[in-house]
Design brief:
The chain is mainly α. The protein contains 9 helices and 5 strands. The longest helix is centred in the N-terminal third of the chain and has 18 residues.
Length: 228
C-alpha cells in the first residue's frame, strides 16, 4: 500500500499534469471571477490532507474558525463517488438520485473574490472552467472533451485515495484538520458513512466515450506513468 507521502507526491504530479494538459484550453475565467466558488465543492480526503499540509499553523487556525462559522450551512453531499457512478453506468443501471441542498452559499475560503488558499485548492476547483463568462448566466459552459478529461482526472484521484473518502469540502476539511481525523486517515481507518461522506472506490471503468479515446490516449499514458 502506498504511503500517505507517496500519495501526496502522486497527487501533486496529477495536478501538474492537468495544468499542462489544459494549458491551451479556451477559458473565460479570470481573477476575481468567483461565481462557481460555492459551498457545493467536493474533495477527497487525500486532497484535504494536501490542503492541510500546504498551510502554516496560523492559516490552519484561521481555516478552522472560518469553517466553524458555516458548519451548519446547506451543502451538496454526494450519494456516490465518480468511480461508483462509472461502475453503475457500465452495468447499465440507474444511479441513485442526488439531493441538492438548495441555494448555494459562498465558499468560506473567499476574501474579496479571491481564494485564500488557491495553490492547494482541490481538483473540483481546478477543473471548473467556462468557455463563456458565467456571472450573468449563472452557470458554466464546457465542451464535451473537457468534461471527459475532468471525469478521468477525478476518477484517478479517487483511485489514488483508496481507502479514503469523498464528500463536501465543508465535511472533509474539518476531518483532516483535526488531529484524530488525520491519524484515522493515515491509518486507513476513516469511517466514511458515519462522517456523512462516502467511501472511495478503485478505478475499474474509465468514463471515456469512443469519440474521445484517441485524443485522451496520450494523457492517459502520462497518468499511468505516475505510480499510483
Amino acid at each position: 500500500m502506498i504511503s500517505t507521502e507517496g500519495k501526496l507526491t502522486a497527487l501533486a504530479r496529477i495536478y501538474s499534469l492537468y495544468r499542462s494538459s489544459t494549458a491551451d484550453l479556451q477559458s473565460a475565467c479570470a481573477q476575481k471571477c468567483a461565481q462557481c466558488c460555492s459551498t457545493d465543492v467536493t474533495m477527497t480526503t487525500l486532497e484535504a490532507y494536501y490542503f492541510w499540509q500546504g498551510l502554516d499553523s496560523n492559516a490552519r487556525d484561521d481555516l478552522i474558525r472560518r469553517l466553524d462559522t458555516i458548519a451548519d450551512a446547506p451543502r451538496f453531499r454526494p450519494a456516490i463517488t465518480i468511480n461508483h457512478l462509472a461502475e453503475i453506468c457500465a452495468a447499465d443501471q440507474e444511479p441513485p438520485p442526488e439531493k441538492k441542498a438548495g441555494a448555494m452559499g459562498r465558499c468560506p475560503l473567499l476574501v474579496e473574490e479571491l481564494c485564500m488558499h488557491y495553490e492547494v485548492r482541490p481538483f473540483h476547483c481546478r477543473c471548473m472552467v467556462s468557455t463563456k463568462v458565467c456571472r450573468a448566466r449563472g452557470f458554466a459552459e464546457m465542451d464535451d472533451f473537457t468534461l471527459t478529461l475532468n471525469s478521468v482526472f477525478l476518477q484517478v484521484i479517487e483511485h489514488l485515495d483508496t481507502p479514503g473518502c469523498t464528500g463536501n469540502l465543508l465535511d472533509v476539511l474539518p476531518l483532516i484538520l483535526s488531529t484524530a481525523g488525520r491519524k484515522s486517515y493515515e491509518d486507513n481507518c476513516c469511517d466514511c458513512p458515519q462522517l456523512g461522506i462516502v467511501s472511495n472506490r478503485p478505478l475499474t471503468k474509465l468514463m471515456v466515450p469512443p469519440r474521445h479515446q484517441n485524443r485522451i490516449a496520450p494523457i492517459l499514458a502520462q497518468l499511468q506513468s505516475i505510480r499510483i
